[in-house]
Design goal:
The protein has six helices and no strands. By secondary structure, it is mostly helical. It has one domain. The relative contact order is 0.14.
Length: about 140
């Protein structure tokens, strides 16, 4: 039986992949993973109106993926460069981290979420998505 690669060699020769350093590709995958995980945690929590352990774990994984992506990016660049995207991104990461601590507190205290916590969740998620999109646009401008 012959196995086929998940990503074809022709796709890897596409200019976008050739022009993007490996570290940035890894960070981009982590940011996208963070988007998926963080979105699942936020919107499932909003729908359920009660935080469950699996949501806390998914939330933590999303925040961790984002933080690791930021760390890889900063290490690759060699410094923190204060661009509008970076400021927006660091603000989002700080808000996500504080939001995670709040969700963890709510879970440990066995409290239900209030309308205010849903609004805050939506606000933090929106800031993070805007940061993700600004990074996408910035990155596309560099490689196109």
């Amino acid at each position: 039986m012959v196995s086929t690669p998940i990503v074809s060699a022709a796709l890897l020769n596409y200019p976008v992949f050739c022009m993007m350093p490996t570290e940035i590709m890894i960070a981009t995958v982590l940011f996208t993973l963070a988007l998926v995980l963080y979105s699942i945690a936020i919107w499932s929590g909003r729908k359920a109106r009660q935080i469950k352990l699996w949501q806390v774990a998914i939330f933590f994984s999303g925040v961790s993926a984002d933080a690791l992506g930021v760390w890889i990016t900063v290490e690759f660049i060699g410094a923190i460069v204060l661009t509008p995207h970076a400021i927006f991104g660091f603000t989002a990461l700080i808000l996500m981290s504080l939001h995670f601590l709040w969700v963890l507190f709510i879970y440990i205290a066995n409290q239900t979420q209030t309308r205010h916590s849903h609004r805050f969740s939506s606000l933090v998620w929106s800031v993070w998505v805007l940061s993700y999109l600004s990074g996408l646009v910035t990155g596309l401008q560099k490689i196109l």
